[in-house]
User: What shape does this take?
Amino acid sequence: MKTRTAIALTGALAMCFLASAVDVDISKLPPPSDKKDVTFERDIKPLFEKSCVDCHGAEKPKGKLRLDTLAATLKGGVDGKVLEPGKSADSFLVANIAFLGNDDDFMPPRKDTKYPRLTAEEVGLVRAWIDQGAK
Assistant: This one.
């Protein structure tokens, strides 16, 4: 019984961390895309490869956050999960790629011109992917 309680508490704490980690005005987020059946492999991975994976790939991922595979993206990094499937507006990842919230967490960093920022449409696609279950 203690194990189930510990698992429930761990899940609840993770959800609280995720919700508190994103302190942004969600009205400023681009809306989720209308595209249906968004998948990581087909739709999201190419976006992450152009803007994120050099720093968040298999070799020395910053913050131990990898965005090169679905499993790694869902796992999160040293600060915990960066998204909760079904809840894009509460996503730390979405806030960061939309350049909302803490300037130190923006991805790619504002001063880094080597990697392109995701457009509002691309952020909307990431939101749709998360809202559709992050598969």
